[in-house]
Amino acid sequence: MFRRTAASAEGGNLLHVIKLVSPFVMVVVLQAAIAGFSLEVMSSVRAYVAGEALWSRSQKNAVYFLNLYLHSGEPSQFAQYQASLAVPIGDEFARWALERDPVDVEAARVGFLQGGNHPDDVPGLIWLFRYFNRVSFLQDAIREWTATDPMLLELSVFGEVIRSELKKGPIQDDDRLQFLSSRLSELNAQFTVHAKQFSTVLGEASRAIKLTLTGINILTAAALILLLIWHTRRLVRQRQVFEDALHAEKERLAWQASHDWLTGLSNRRAFEARLQAELDNAAAGALALILLDLDQFKSVNDSCGHLARDSLLCQVSRLLQQDRHAHDLVARLGGDEFGLILPRCSPFDAVDIAERLRRSLELFNFAWDDRCFAVTASIGVACIADGNITLEDAMRRADAACYRAKEKGRNRVQVENSRSDVVVVAPRPREAVAARG
């Protein structure tokens, strides 16, 4: 059982920790995902920029070597023309593979590799084209790229035409030679325009993406900071609530330890602690101790039950607290027994207070279920002039006085002075009672 409880507590603590850190984990994961996505996009755009440079240079080289071949007829220059032309053709082939439905990823990979792109860059080139080809910057770049398709076809056909003519021997017709050379120059100029526009679009896109992704990363970082601040404040509030609850619980437990749960009066433990403190403080002057037992308590309990008994005790406790000084203490010592500590109280004042309590109880009628009960009390008073008496002696003297009041017929006050045996002191009229400090 203990092991199951410990395991359950450990599981609860783990769940609480997970709840605390989960917002931070989610934001960090989001930040990492955005950072990874940013790097992937920037890497793919960089790959396109690098591929564009190779694509543009290869087109120019193809025109250049074909023009040399036109004038020299050297097979090696034609081979260089073919090698240069294979680069933009490979990129064109890759684009066609990606524009198919469904996409032919393997063909696109082969095409990009033929285009001279680094193998590590090929997946990024394919990913960016597939999932972002409808984004404006990539659409503009693809449009410039696609515009060179007819020129590549013409350059390829042109190469075969020139090769076919040179197989017959050098071209002797100056006009024919001039025409072919001029057309190559025009193709080169057209390639340059589209290549430059392609490069410009990719450069602008690269800067825009970098700015956008930087902003997104800043916003997510700010969100993480704000979440940290909010969560910290929440933890501080929770801690404060917990501390307040803990303090309230300590106060409640302390109150329960020193008070009677039914009447709210101090209990015997608190009563004896206060009495000991008063006895230790001999300089405070005279001290009166009153013990009170209800005379009809058992008959109410036997006739009407526990609820009636509890109601009687609560009503009596309120009656005993009436007109008490702030430094007086009223306590329920157990059952139907109550006690009062009256600091700085002379014997005459103590007797008067006890007599007034007796009279108040005598005039009090307890009603329960259409039945009325007369309530009286046997009251014992112990007057202590100094602190040279133990707590046990003080309680014994007050208890002896209360017991003597019961022996003499109940509903009376019996007084014991610390310098004499038990004596009865008749109470003075109310107007003769001196005011207590």
3D structure, described in words:
Helix 3 crosses helix 4 and helix 5 packs antiparallel against helix 7. Residues about 420-435 have low confidence and may be disordered. A 6-stranded mixed sheet has the order 2-3-1-6-7-8, with helices on both faces. Strands 4-5 form a two-stranded antiparallel sheet. It is rod-shaped, with a radius of gyration of 53 Å. It has 12 helices and 8 strands. The relative contact order is 0.07. With about 425 residues, it is of the alpha+beta class. A hairpin with a 2-residue loop joins strand 2 and strand 3. The chain has helices at about 1-70, 75-100, 105-115, 120-130, 135-145, 150-165, 175-260, 270-280, 295-305, 305-320, 345-365, 390-405; strands spanning about 285-295, 330-335, 335-345, 365-370, 370-375, 375-385, 410-415, 420-425.
What is the helix fraction of residues, given as a range? Answer: 55-70%
Distance between the termini: 60 Å
Tell me what portion of residues adopts beta-strand conformation.
5-15%
Largest sheet, described in full? 6 strands, mixed
The average pLDDT is: 84
Assembly category? single chain
Low-pLDDT runs of 5+ residues are 419-437
Total E-strand runs: 8
Which word captures the global form? Answer: rod-shaped
Would you list the SSEs in sequence order as H and E?
HHHHHHHHEHHEEHEEEHEE
Alpha-carbon Rg, integer: 53 Å
Helix segment tally: 12
User: Strand order across the biggest sheet?
Assistant: 2-3-1-6-7-8
> Structural class, from helix and strand content?
alpha+beta
